[in-house]
């Protein structure tokens, strides 16, 4: 009986032996994890300026509550502050953050600094802000620095001239930023034309 000869095509044999291709990895829009997510447009700057602890003495001992002062902004000219109280620190910060987002307003900026010198006050807090050349940085501390960073001011000189109370300093800084006006608006208020701006 004659032996049968089986001829196997090499490419076909390789295809038969080779394992099946692995399924492609699921795509998540280019994001591989929480740390790789691109920042959303709604994301902004949030800074906790001060947390205060209050103790209430009752018959069974002391009950503690917390208050938080938070400054929020988009680092592009919008900033606001909020105050929150709760029995836990995290809840107080959450309330203050929500309040600061609701109270955000737009300020006038000139490149990386403020357009002119301005003075702001609230209660016993008084602060003086002066424009600075690029590269100077934020020369201010405490609550004033937090507000300026959240607002997107990169070069400014600040000096606190009154109370060091965090809430008053923050609100005084916000009052100063609210008083900023562009040069064109100031010229119109003085009855001058915009074309005279270069001669001033």
Could you explain how this protein is built, in words?
This protein is α+β, with helices and mostly antiparallel strands and 200 residues long. It is elongated, with a radius of gyration of 30 Å. Among the domains are: 45-105, Double Stranded RNA Binding Domain; 108-185, Ribosomal Protein S5, domain 2 (2-Layer Sandwich). The protein contains five helices and eight strands; from the N terminus they run αβββαββββαβαα. The model is unreliable at 26-42 (pLDDT under 50).
State Rg. Answer: 30 Å
Question: What does the main sheet amount to?
Answer: 4 strands, antiparallel
Structural class: alpha+beta
CATH architecture of the domain at 108-185: 2-Layer Sandwich
- Overall pLDDT: 81
Distance between the termini: 115 Å
Q: What's the multimeric state?
A: single chain
CATH class of the domain at 108-185 reads: Alpha Beta
What proportion of the residues is helical, as a percent range?
Answer: 25-40%
Spatial strand order of the main sheet: 1-2-3-4
Give the count of helical stretches: 5
Element string (H = helix, E = strand)? HEEEHEEEEHEHH
Q: Could you tell me the CATH topology label of the domain at 108-185.
A: Ribosomal Protein S5, domain 2
Outline the secondary-structure elements.
Layout: H1 10-17, E1 45-58, E2 61-73, E3 78-86, H2 89-102, E4 105-106, E5 118-122, E6 125-131, E7 138-139, H3 142-151, E8 156-160, H4 166-178, H5 183-189
Parallel strand pairs: 7-8
Antiparallel strand pairs: 1-2, 2-3, 3-4, 5-6, 6-8
